[in-house]
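Reopening this ticket.

The earlier resolution said the output was attached, but the attachment link was broken on my side. Pasting everything inline this time so it's all in one place.
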Amino acid sequence: GENITTQDLQRIVQSRLRGSMGNDPHLVSMIANSLLDQMVLSRAVETQARKLGLQVSDQEVVQSLQAIPWLYNDGKFIGVDAYQNQIAQETGMSAAQFEAQLKQRMLLEKVRNVVTDSVEVTPAEVHEEFLHRNAKAKVEYAVLDPSQFINEVKVTPDALDAFFKKDPAHY
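Inline output:
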C-alpha cells in the first residue's frame, strides 16, 4: 500500500554507486532490480512490524551504536562531529541516514525473530534436509553417435511398411 518512486530508487542507486562507476548505465541496471527488491522487502517488513506492534526505540539504536568499536576510543564516545565525519567516511552516508538504516536492520531482525522463534526443527528433519541437499547419484552412460550406424542398417520399403502395420495404433 505504499509507493516507491523512481526518485527513491535513483537516490538509493546513486548512494550505493558513489565513488565507483556511478554513471555506467550497465552497472546501474544491474543493481537497480536488486535494490528495488530490497526496498519492497523493507516496506513489507515495516508494514508487518506495525501489525505486530514492533518498533525500535531510540535507546536500542544508541545501544547498537555503542557496539561499534570505531566510534569509541578507550570506551569514550568520539564526539558528535567526529561521529558524523567517521560515519560519512566509513559508509558514505550522513549520520541520520546511517541511523535510519541501522534502525531498519534492527526492525527486520525483530520481525525475523518473531517468525523464527516459533519454528522448531526436529533432528530427523535436519537429517532429511541434509540428505536431500547432499545426496549424490552415480550414473553410468555411453555416448553413441547414430550417424556411425546409419550405413549398417538396411531398411527396405516392405520391411518399413510391415513394421508400422504391426502396431498401427501406436503410430
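Reporter confirms the inline version is readable. The longest strand covers residues 72-73. The helical segments are 6-17, 25-52, 58-66, 80-91, 95-117, 123-134, 157-166.
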